[in-house]
From TrEMBL:
It comes from Undibacterium squillarum. SMART domains: AAA. Residues 398-417 are annotated as: Disordered. It comes from the Bacteria. The keyword ATP-binding applies. Residues 398-409 have a biased composition (Polar residues). Residues 148-370 form the Sigma-54 factor interaction domain. Keywords: ATP-binding, Nucleotide-binding, Transcription, Transcription regulation. This is Sigma-54 factor interaction domain-containing protein.
């Protein structure tokens, strides 16, 4: 495929968005869900946009341009003005249409500084359509990558970086908060690489037993340790010729870090108890939500890992993507595909900070759809209580101030000691968080590595590798490949089940 396949499709090529950002209007919600994600991008840097039922024209890349068109949106326009300091002023029309800005009904002009627009300004029209005002520094282009969803500046840049680095063999370090899609990015890099014909090998470093981590990664000779009755193949050998994804790299035991450095520098490693070295040409992708520069992490190894760094932004910094993510995630779950989402809950979804990012949005959306199918009226505050806010300016219900966390949402659980937690506590936390470890750990007030220890010691919770292929296949098929429902029945963590099922080609 030649370079023209990924060239700009917007008429904005003459502009330089790096010099001065473009003001974009993205349809985050519309009664016709096919319209969600359509954009209008203003080419005037000090201008007025009149937003009404018939103007401006919104479109997806390569698609047909259409106005909002919905009857709940007034013919009288909402005026959006941008001055030469990039201050945005929104003036509602003198009509009966209800206009809400960041969740507050407005009848007078409201203004926002440039940095506030960078957070995304949610404008609700007639309680039917939601438009996000935000800056764009990347122009829309045809560069679809499965799983990497979004129309934001950040999503466009992420897809560009993935396609750029995928064709190389360089190590990649993925940095981002939990739930931002680091594993999805790793899978995309592998699928676009020349190594795509071989399976991606995924390892969660936080889940490795510290005493056996070297054997897990590099293999072991027969008799190398108690119980080693035969030669053991490690992950580096398994991934030779393919890609090795080491998630939670910040949790790598300190004794293992020099071994990783050696295999990165030379391609050589020595299995535990072996008499000679072996070689692996596995391409390494690592990921973490930790700051490796401020923890006790081998800095020489870090320099090797950061050959190419991709930062995955939190969802609160790409609010214009929430609508297209909701549509995508609903299609993935297969739950309530014909269910109409009430506008009130949609508005709450758009305004929340999502400290658990895309993963949390997925969990909450699934619960909302199940509740709606049961005839209930779910409220967001009751569904997000186990997550702690990551940032003071994450959410927003103020009309002209940076977003703030909603006071109705409860803070994360206080820190607890492991001996204070019973198996029943652990099971309940896993059930309430769809068998996702991070959410359960936050609900219990413990760290993720501590949660792994509790799971390892639990008498009823199993690792996917401990479950027979026949049982795994039967349960996955019973639940139509829904990993969360299958994890609940099998009593195994969702993330581990998904990775293992992919590794053995059940998904």
């Amino acid at each position: 495929m030649n370079d023209t396949a990924y060239t700009l499709s917007s008429p904005l090529a003459a502009k330089d968005p790096q010099e001065n950002p473009l003001l974009a209007l993205t349809i985050c919600w519309h009664p016709d869900e096919s319209r969600i994600g359509e954009q209008f991008i203003s080419t005037d840097f000090a201008s007025r946009i009149e937003l009404n039922r018939y103007f401006p024209v919104f479109q997806k890349t390569g698609g047909e341009g259409l106005p909002i068109g919905h009857g709940a949106v007034s013919r009288d326009p909402v005026r959006i003005e941008r001055n030469d300091q990039n201050r945005i002023t929104i003036t509602p029309p003198a009509s009966k249409m209800v206009v809400e800005v960041n969740g507050n009904q407005v009848t007078e002009p409201v203004s926002f500084l440039s940095e506030e627009t960078a957070n995304g300004i949610m404008v609700s029209l007639g309680r039917s359509v939601i438009i996000c005002l935000h800056w764009m520094r990347s122009l829309p282009k045809m560069n679809l990558i499965p799983g990497v969803i979004g129309v934001s500046d950040a999503a466009i840049r992420l897809r560009d970086q993935i396609r750029q680095i995928a064709v190389t063999t360089m190590p990649v370090l993925l940095l981002g908060e939990t739930g931002t899609g680091k594993e999805v990015a790793a899978q995309a890099i592998h699928k676009l690489s020349p190594r795509q014909h071989l399976p991606l090998v995924s390892v969660n470093m936080a889940a490795l037993n510290e005493s056996l981590a070297a054997a897990d990664l590099f293999g072991a000779a027969r008799g190398a340790y108690t119980g080693a009755q035969q030669t053991r193949k490690g992950y580096f050998a398994e991934a030779s010729g393919s890609t090795l994804f080491l998630d939670e790299i910040g949790n790598t035991p300190s004794a293992i870090q020099p071994m990783l450095l050696r295999v990165l520098e030379t391609g050589e490693y020595r299995p535990l108890g072996a008499a000679q070295d072996m070689r692996s040409d596995a391409r390494l992708i690592t990921a973490t939500d930790q700051d490796l520069y401020s923890v006790q992490f081998n800095q020489a190894l870090l320099r090797r890992l950061e050959s190419f760094v991709i930062h995955l932004p939190p969802l609160r910094e790409r609010r214009e993507d929430i609508g297209v993510l909701i549509v995508h995630l609903r299609q993935q779950t297969g739950i309530g595909s014909q269910q109409i989402l009430p506008f009130e809950i949609v508005s709450e979804l758009m305004l929340y900070s999502w400290p658990g990012n895309i993963r949390q949005l997925s969990h909450v959306l699934r619960r909302i759809l199940i509740a709606l199918q049961s005839g209930e009226s779910p409220r967001l505050a009751s569904l997000v209580q186990s997550y702690a806010p990551h940032h003071d300016s994450a959410v927003n219900i103020a009309q002209s101030t940076p977003p703030r966390e909603q006071s109705s949402l409860k803070p994360a659980a206080p820190r607890k000691r492991l001996h204070e937690l019973s198996e029943e506590d652990v099971t309940r936390a896993m059930v309430e968080n769809d068998w996702y470890i991070q959410g359960a750990a936050q609900a219990l007030g413990i760290s993720r590595p501590s949660m792994y220890k509790l799971l390892e010691q639990h008498s009823q919770i199993r690792r996917p590798e401990q479950i027979s292929h026949q049982e795994l296949q039967a349960v996955l098929q019973q639940h139509k490949m829904n990993v969360e429902l299958s994890a609940a029945e099998l009593k195994t963590p969702s993330e581990a089940l998904r990775r293992y099922a992919r590794a053995i080609n059940l998904i």
